[in-house]
Specification:
two-stranded antiparallel sheet; mainly alpha; 77 residues; 2 helices; 5% strand
Length: 77
């Protein structure tokens, strides 16, 4: 399909029911730069920047508190 027109693809599905959700490539098998446009209706997901600013998306090595080993050490003291 990419040889014919790489900017626009049309696919027709004939069903008796009305479509409520369409998701393209849920297993991420194709190289897709913009995964935000793979769903209809569009999923509202926070951006990486807004997650960083809110502190919800902590990186590796950045914990929210003490780990289980530290907790056990404090209980034994």
């Amino acid at each position: 399909i990419w040889r014919k027109n790489e900017n626009k693809v049309t696919k027709l599905f004939l069903t008796n029911k009305k479509a409520t959700k369409i998701q393209l490539d849920p297993l991420r098998e194709t190289a897709d730069i913009n995964e935000a446009n793979n769903n209809w209706p569009a999923n509202v997901e926070p951006s990486k920047f807004s997650l960083f600013k809110s502190g919800a998306g902590r990186g590796r090595g950045q914990s929210n508190g003490i780990n289980p080993m530290q907790n056990a050490m404090q209980k034994s003291k």
